[in-house]
């Protein structure tokens, strides 16, 4: 039994958190570039504070990130040494179309990713490509209001035509939008949405989401037309909600929280807006503007597989006395008294991954792909730059064991597993470098100091052993 023979083991990154080179190779500015570290980060990513360019009062970690733009060959060689079968990365939209609305793409940007994909193939690594991992060119935000404008569907369609044709035969696995449900929680970071005074925020967010859902269906259609071998997935920030108690109101609250998470995936996987979502929009007074043919597009172009991130489970309650929230994560949750938490307050729950896998598989009966899972922690290197990260090994071993149970004991169809931040990178939530996830230590701090030198951590060799044994050897000694 165990994992399938062609199980796709690997790691995941996002362009805006690792590439840097924000103004090189003809790249244009994007929303993800102008998000600072510090107390203003959250107001900016939620669209409450306007920051459309750099200023002298803030530090912007994505400008250089870990400089993978100049070091990708070294990094891919390290991934290959671990035995990666797949590498999840994202395309920076503004590298291909610097403004987003040009007719013709930027050849230098296209070549950059082509070289990366060819390098992966050289090592037998299958690229898993996120088309949009929060990136939105700043020109589209200033000129059109980002995804609140229907015009972005056409610009995204143009991007898809270009990349599916250019990378045919190099890339087989695609994700349309990273954590599409993040548009509700961090709308500027997730979709470039900024709110003006007097905006009906819910109306703006859900209309923008509809545009993304239509764009995702169009991407799926084009991908299948260009190459029938292409497999297209959706992607959500997942984590089952537990009721705090067996009080029926808590149980119903957890169900509603789950539904909010699954809403967009219901559309992408089943092909239509679910009844509960239509009722919710009606209650909120939201009227989605749809064009003729939208519903047919959604129905006829559902995804081939469902991918998701999992870091922790969450808890729902209706008791106002219990609303002490977990820290750190954009998805705030009531604390679970039965779980330990990470240094950033994220609750550690390996069994929750098995529960989440079962929930999603039961709901959609489509192959699943875990494309983010990991532990953000402060790593302290010794004098040789070596990090003994037993805490990360224990976290990952427990989650892989739970994942294995879901496959072996529950019959979940799982395509692969890519740990988040396989090399240290900038945190999306906090902008910190000290919140590290990687098997590879990068000498860089929160203020942008350091040599950027890469060093293998203890977990590097551990994960190499996991991949070599197809998940059979999870020993942490």
From TrEMBL:
Coiled coil: none annotated. SUPFAM superfamilies: (Trans)glycosidases (SSF51445). One of its GO terms (molecular function) is beta-glucosidase activity. GO terms for biological process: carbohydrate catabolic process. InterPro entries: GH, GH_1_N_CS, Glyco_hydro_1, Glyco_hydro_1_AS. The active site is at 372 (nucleophile). One of its GO terms (cellular component) is cytosol. The keyword Hydrolase applies. It comes from the Bacteria. Pfam families: Glyco_hydro_1 (PF00232). Keywords: Glycosidase, Hydrolase. The keyword Hydrolase applies. NCBIfam families: PRK09589.1, PRK09593.1, PRK09852.1. Belongs to the glycosyl hydrolase 1 family. This is 6-phospho-beta-glucosidase. It comes from Enterococcus saigonensis. The lineage of its organism: Bacteria, Bacillati, Bacillota, Bacilli, Lactobacillales.
